[in-house]
Write a structure and sequence with these properties.
The complex is a heterodimer of chains A (48) and B (255). With 48 residues, chain A is mostly helical. Chain A contains 1 helix and no strands. Chain B has one domain: Four Helix Bundle (Hemerythrin (Met), subunit A) (Up-down Bundle), CATH 1.20.120. Chain B is mostly helical and 255 residues long. Chain B contains 9 helices and no strands. In chain B, helix 5 runs parallel beside helix 7, helix 5 packs across helix 9 and helix 6 runs antiparallel to helix 7. Classes of the chains: A mainly alpha (48), B mainly alpha (255). At the A-B interface, helix 1 of A face helix 2, helix 5 and helix 9 of B.
Chain lengths: 48, 255
Amino acid sequence: MPDTQAYLILGLAVTFAIMALLIASMIIRHRNLLKDIELLEQLKDENN
Amino acid sequence: MSAIGNLSSNPNQHARSGIAAWPPLLRILTLATIIAVAIGLYLGLFYSGTDIDQGQVQRLFYIHLSAFTGAFIAFCGTVLGGVQYLRTRNVQWDSIALAGAEVGLALSILNLVTGMIWARPIWNTWWTWDPRLTSAAIMCLTYAAYLMLRSGIENAEQRRRFASIYGILAITTVILTLMITRIRPDTIHPVVIGPSVQNPNAEGAFEFSERMSMTIGINSAIWSTLVPVTLMWHRVRLQNLIERVNALKAEVLNK
Protein backbone atom coordinates (compact mmCIF):
# COMPACT_ATOMS: atom_id res chain seq x y z
CA MET A 1 0.00 0.00 0.00
CA PRO A 2 1.52 3.39 -0.97
CA ASP A 3 2.17 5.90 1.79
CA THR A 4 -0.12 8.82 0.84
CA GLN A 5 -1.03 9.98 4.34
CA ALA A 6 0.71 13.35 3.92
CA TYR A 7 -1.62 14.17 1.01
CA LEU A 8 -4.66 13.22 3.08
CA ILE A 9 -3.53 15.58 5.84
CA LEU A 10 -2.90 18.34 3.29
CA GLY A 11 -6.36 17.77 1.80
CA LEU A 12 -8.03 17.95 5.20
CA ALA A 13 -6.11 21.13 6.09
CA VAL A 14 -7.18 22.76 2.84
CA THR A 15 -10.80 21.67 3.42
CA PHE A 16 -10.84 23.28 6.86
CA ALA A 17 -9.11 26.39 5.50
CA ILE A 18 -11.63 26.90 2.67
CA MET A 19 -14.66 26.37 4.92
CA ALA A 20 -13.13 28.57 7.65
CA LEU A 21 -12.44 31.30 5.08
CA LEU A 22 -16.06 31.23 3.85
CA ILE A 23 -17.52 31.31 7.37
CA ALA A 24 -15.03 33.95 8.61
CA SER A 25 -15.78 36.19 5.64
CA MET A 26 -19.50 36.00 6.48
CA ILE A 27 -18.85 36.79 10.16
CA ILE A 28 -16.55 39.73 9.36
CA ARG A 29 -18.99 41.17 6.80
CA HIS A 30 -21.82 40.73 9.32
CA ARG A 31 -19.91 42.63 12.02
CA ASN A 32 -18.96 45.44 9.63
CA LEU A 33 -22.57 45.77 8.46
CA LEU A 34 -23.82 46.03 12.03
CA LYS A 35 -21.33 48.85 12.63
CA ASP A 36 -22.50 50.55 9.43
CA ILE A 37 -26.15 50.25 10.50
CA GLU A 38 -25.35 51.73 13.90
CA LEU A 39 -23.51 54.66 12.33
CA LEU A 40 -26.19 55.27 9.71
CA GLU A 41 -28.97 55.14 12.31
CA GLN A 42 -27.02 57.74 14.31
CA LEU A 43 -26.65 59.97 11.25
CA LYS A 44 -30.34 59.56 10.48
CA ASP A 45 -31.29 60.59 14.01
CA GLU A 46 -28.96 63.60 13.87
CA ASN A 47 -30.50 64.67 10.56
CA ASN A 48 -33.96 64.44 12.09
CA MET B 1 -43.19 33.54 -0.81
CA SER B 2 -43.84 33.38 2.91
CA ALA B 3 -41.34 30.55 3.19
CA ILE B 4 -38.71 32.81 1.67
CA GLY B 5 -39.78 35.59 3.94
CA ASN B 6 -39.09 33.30 6.86
CA LEU B 7 -35.55 32.72 5.62
CA SER B 8 -34.87 36.33 6.18
CA SER B 9 -35.43 38.20 9.36
CA ASN B 10 -35.79 41.72 10.48
CA PRO B 11 -32.30 43.23 10.05
CA ASN B 12 -32.74 45.11 13.31
CA GLN B 13 -32.87 41.74 15.03
CA HIS B 14 -29.27 41.10 13.93
CA ALA B 15 -28.20 44.34 15.50
CA ARG B 16 -29.79 43.44 18.80
CA SER B 17 -28.37 40.07 19.70
CA GLY B 18 -26.35 38.20 17.03
CA ILE B 19 -26.75 34.42 17.30
CA ALA B 20 -29.62 34.79 19.76
CA ALA B 21 -31.54 36.54 16.97
CA TRP B 22 -31.25 33.55 14.64
CA PRO B 23 -34.61 31.88 13.98
CA PRO B 24 -34.91 28.67 16.06
CA LEU B 25 -34.95 26.56 12.89
CA LEU B 26 -31.66 28.10 11.73
CA ARG B 27 -30.07 27.41 15.09
CA ILE B 28 -31.18 23.77 14.94
CA LEU B 29 -30.08 23.48 11.31
CA THR B 30 -26.64 24.96 12.03
CA LEU B 31 -26.07 22.62 14.96
CA ALA B 32 -27.34 19.62 12.96
CA THR B 33 -24.99 20.54 10.08
CA ILE B 34 -21.93 20.76 12.35
CA ILE B 35 -22.74 17.40 13.96
CA ALA B 36 -23.55 15.73 10.62
CA VAL B 37 -20.34 16.97 8.96
CA ALA B 38 -18.33 15.69 11.94
CA ILE B 39 -20.04 12.27 11.67
CA GLY B 40 -19.40 12.17 7.90
CA LEU B 41 -15.75 13.03 8.49
CA TYR B 42 -15.47 10.33 11.15
CA LEU B 43 -16.93 7.73 8.76
CA GLY B 44 -14.55 8.79 5.99
CA LEU B 45 -11.46 8.78 8.19
CA PHE B 46 -12.05 5.83 10.50
CA TYR B 47 -14.93 3.64 9.34
CA SER B 48 -14.68 3.26 5.57
CA GLY B 49 -11.46 1.24 5.38
CA THR B 50 -8.29 1.99 3.46
CA ASP B 51 -7.97 1.49 -0.29
CA ILE B 52 -5.13 -0.95 -0.95
CA ASP B 53 -3.98 0.68 -4.21
CA GLN B 54 -4.23 4.37 -3.28
CA GLY B 55 -3.62 4.34 0.47
CA GLN B 56 -4.95 7.02 2.82
CA VAL B 57 -5.35 9.73 0.16
CA GLN B 58 -8.38 7.88 -1.26
CA ARG B 59 -10.32 9.16 1.76
CA LEU B 60 -10.24 12.64 0.22
CA PHE B 61 -12.71 11.29 -2.31
CA TYR B 62 -15.50 11.50 0.31
CA ILE B 63 -14.97 15.25 0.61
CA HIS B 64 -14.24 15.70 -3.12
CA LEU B 65 -17.49 14.14 -4.34
CA SER B 66 -19.60 15.54 -1.49
CA ALA B 67 -18.35 19.08 -2.12
CA PHE B 68 -19.44 18.79 -5.74
CA THR B 69 -22.93 17.58 -4.79
CA GLY B 70 -23.19 20.53 -2.39
CA ALA B 71 -22.03 22.95 -5.10
CA PHE B 72 -24.56 21.46 -7.52
CA ILE B 73 -27.45 22.04 -5.11
CA ALA B 74 -26.26 25.59 -4.35
CA PHE B 75 -26.01 26.40 -8.07
CA CYS B 76 -29.53 24.98 -8.54
CA GLY B 77 -30.53 27.50 -5.86
CA THR B 78 -29.04 30.23 -8.08
CA VAL B 79 -31.17 29.04 -11.00
CA LEU B 80 -34.31 28.85 -8.87
CA GLY B 81 -33.63 32.28 -7.38
CA GLY B 82 -32.95 33.74 -10.83
CA VAL B 83 -36.10 32.31 -12.43
CA GLN B 84 -38.26 33.34 -9.50
CA TYR B 85 -36.77 36.84 -9.40
CA LEU B 86 -37.48 37.37 -13.11
CA ARG B 87 -41.06 36.17 -12.53
CA THR B 88 -41.86 38.03 -9.33
CA ARG B 89 -39.20 40.81 -9.00
CA ASN B 90 -39.02 39.92 -5.32
CA VAL B 91 -35.56 40.87 -3.99
CA GLN B 92 -35.48 37.87 -1.65
CA TRP B 93 -35.19 35.54 -4.63
CA ASP B 94 -32.20 37.51 -5.88
CA SER B 95 -30.60 37.11 -2.44
CA ILE B 96 -31.11 33.33 -2.68
CA ALA B 97 -29.53 33.31 -6.15
CA LEU B 98 -26.51 35.26 -4.89
CA ALA B 99 -26.18 33.01 -1.83
CA GLY B 100 -26.25 29.93 -4.08
CA ALA B 101 -23.48 31.32 -6.30
CA GLU B 102 -21.22 32.24 -3.39
CA VAL B 103 -21.68 28.99 -1.43
CA GLY B 104 -21.51 26.94 -4.63
CA LEU B 105 -18.27 28.63 -5.66
CA ALA B 106 -16.65 27.88 -2.29
CA LEU B 107 -17.74 24.23 -2.49
CA SER B 108 -16.60 23.83 -6.09
CA ILE B 109 -13.18 25.31 -5.21
CA LEU B 110 -13.05 22.72 -2.41
CA ASN B 111 -13.93 20.02 -4.96
CA LEU B 112 -11.22 21.24 -7.32
CA VAL B 113 -8.48 21.56 -4.68
CA THR B 114 -9.14 18.18 -3.03
CA GLY B 115 -9.07 16.65 -6.51
CA MET B 116 -5.69 18.26 -7.21
CA ILE B 117 -4.24 16.99 -3.93
CA TRP B 118 -5.55 13.47 -4.67
CA ALA B 119 -4.14 13.64 -8.22
CA ARG B 120 -0.58 14.38 -7.10
CA PRO B 121 0.23 10.88 -5.77
CA ILE B 122 -2.24 9.00 -8.03
CA TRP B 123 -1.66 10.74 -11.41
CA ASN B 124 1.78 12.06 -10.49
CA THR B 125 0.71 15.63 -11.29
CA TRP B 126 -1.23 18.40 -9.53
CA TRP B 127 -3.03 19.42 -12.70
CA THR B 128 -3.60 18.28 -16.24
CA TRP B 129 -5.82 19.81 -18.93
CA ASP B 130 -8.13 16.82 -18.89
CA PRO B 131 -11.71 17.52 -20.13
CA ARG B 132 -13.22 17.00 -16.63
CA LEU B 133 -10.66 19.17 -14.85
CA THR B 134 -10.92 21.87 -17.50
CA SER B 135 -14.72 21.95 -17.35
CA ALA B 136 -14.59 22.11 -13.53
CA ALA B 137 -12.16 25.04 -13.72
CA ILE B 138 -14.42 26.80 -16.25
CA MET B 139 -17.37 26.25 -13.89
CA CYS B 140 -15.47 27.89 -11.00
CA LEU B 141 -14.38 30.82 -13.17
CA THR B 142 -17.94 31.29 -14.48
CA TYR B 143 -19.32 31.70 -10.96
CA ALA B 144 -16.36 33.84 -9.83
CA ALA B 145 -17.18 36.09 -12.81
CA TYR B 146 -20.85 36.13 -11.70
CA LEU B 147 -19.82 37.60 -8.34
CA MET B 148 -17.38 40.09 -9.87
CA LEU B 149 -19.73 41.27 -12.63
CA ARG B 150 -22.57 41.60 -10.13
CA SER B 151 -20.58 43.95 -7.95
CA GLY B 152 -19.65 46.02 -11.00
CA ILE B 153 -23.23 47.09 -11.87
CA GLU B 154 -24.39 50.18 -10.02
CA ASN B 155 -28.11 50.12 -10.83
CA ALA B 156 -29.73 47.63 -8.43
CA GLU B 157 -32.59 46.57 -10.71
CA GLN B 158 -30.26 46.14 -13.68
CA ARG B 159 -27.80 44.19 -11.50
CA ARG B 160 -30.47 41.78 -10.28
CA ARG B 161 -31.89 41.23 -13.76
CA PHE B 162 -28.45 40.65 -15.25
CA ALA B 163 -27.43 38.32 -12.40
CA SER B 164 -30.64 36.31 -12.75
CA ILE B 165 -30.08 35.67 -16.45
CA TYR B 166 -26.37 34.97 -15.96
CA GLY B 167 -27.09 32.61 -13.05
CA ILE B 168 -29.60 30.64 -15.11
CA LEU B 169 -27.22 30.32 -18.07
CA ALA B 170 -24.22 29.47 -15.85
CA ILE B 171 -25.79 26.15 -14.80
CA THR B 172 -24.77 24.80 -18.23
CA THR B 173 -21.14 24.73 -16.99
CA VAL B 174 -22.23 22.59 -14.01
CA ILE B 175 -24.15 20.17 -16.25
CA LEU B 176 -21.18 20.00 -18.62
CA THR B 177 -18.82 19.19 -15.73
CA LEU B 178 -21.23 16.53 -14.50
CA MET B 179 -21.65 14.88 -17.90
CA ILE B 180 -18.24 15.26 -19.50
CA THR B 181 -16.77 11.98 -18.26
CA ARG B 182 -19.73 10.24 -19.86
CA ILE B 183 -19.49 11.95 -23.24
CA ARG B 184 -15.73 12.39 -23.70
CA PRO B 185 -13.95 9.03 -23.90
CA ASP B 186 -10.50 10.65 -23.72
CA THR B 187 -10.74 11.83 -20.09
CA ILE B 188 -8.46 10.18 -17.56
CA HIS B 189 -10.78 11.19 -14.71
CA PRO B 190 -12.40 8.01 -13.39
CA VAL B 191 -16.18 7.66 -13.55
CA VAL B 192 -16.74 6.35 -10.08
CA ILE B 193 -20.50 6.10 -10.12
CA GLY B 194 -22.72 4.89 -12.96
CA PRO B 195 -22.11 3.55 -16.46
CA SER B 196 -19.86 5.42 -18.88
CA VAL B 197 -17.78 5.22 -22.01
CA GLN B 198 -14.77 5.13 -19.72
CA ASN B 199 -11.40 5.52 -21.33
CA PRO B 200 -9.31 2.42 -20.51
CA ASN B 201 -6.47 4.83 -19.66
CA ALA B 202 -8.50 6.41 -16.84
CA GLU B 203 -6.58 6.19 -13.60
CA GLY B 204 -7.67 6.31 -10.01
CA ALA B 205 -10.89 4.28 -10.02
CA PHE B 206 -11.33 1.95 -7.08
CA GLU B 207 -13.52 -0.92 -6.00
CA PHE B 208 -16.26 0.02 -3.57
CA SER B 209 -16.58 -1.98 -0.39
CA GLU B 210 -19.91 -1.93 1.42
CA ARG B 211 -18.47 0.47 4.02
CA MET B 212 -17.14 2.79 1.34
CA SER B 213 -20.53 2.92 -0.41
CA MET B 214 -22.23 3.75 2.87
CA THR B 215 -19.69 6.48 3.66
CA ILE B 216 -20.10 8.02 0.20
CA GLY B 217 -23.90 7.90 0.50
CA ILE B 218 -24.01 9.50 3.95
CA ASN B 219 -21.44 12.20 3.14
CA SER B 220 -23.13 13.08 -0.14
CA ALA B 221 -26.50 13.31 1.60
CA ILE B 222 -25.09 15.63 4.27
CA TRP B 223 -23.18 17.86 1.85
CA SER B 224 -26.00 18.08 -0.67
CA THR B 225 -28.69 19.04 1.85
CA LEU B 226 -27.57 20.39 5.21
CA VAL B 227 -24.32 22.12 4.20
CA PRO B 228 -25.54 24.24 1.24
CA VAL B 229 -28.93 25.02 2.79
CA THR B 230 -27.43 26.18 6.11
CA LEU B 231 -24.67 28.24 4.48
CA MET B 232 -27.12 29.78 1.99
CA TRP B 233 -29.56 30.69 4.73
CA HIS B 234 -26.79 32.53 6.62
CA ARG B 235 -25.72 34.23 3.39
CA VAL B 236 -29.30 35.36 2.66
CA ARG B 237 -29.47 36.92 6.12
CA LEU B 238 -26.20 38.72 5.42
CA GLN B 239 -27.66 40.00 2.15
CA ASN B 240 -30.67 41.34 4.05
CA LEU B 241 -28.28 43.38 6.19
CA ILE B 242 -26.57 44.71 3.05
CA GLU B 243 -29.97 45.76 1.66
CA ARG B 244 -30.75 47.45 4.97
CA VAL B 245 -27.43 49.38 4.89
CA ASN B 246 -28.09 50.46 1.29
CA ALA B 247 -31.58 51.65 2.21
CA LEU B 248 -30.23 53.60 5.20
CA LYS B 249 -27.46 55.15 3.08
CA ALA B 250 -30.04 56.32 0.53
CA GLU B 251 -32.21 57.73 3.33
CA VAL B 252 -29.31 59.64 4.94
CA LEU B 253 -27.97 60.98 1.64
CA ASN B 254 -31.38 62.12 0.45
CA LYS B 255 -31.89 64.34 3.48
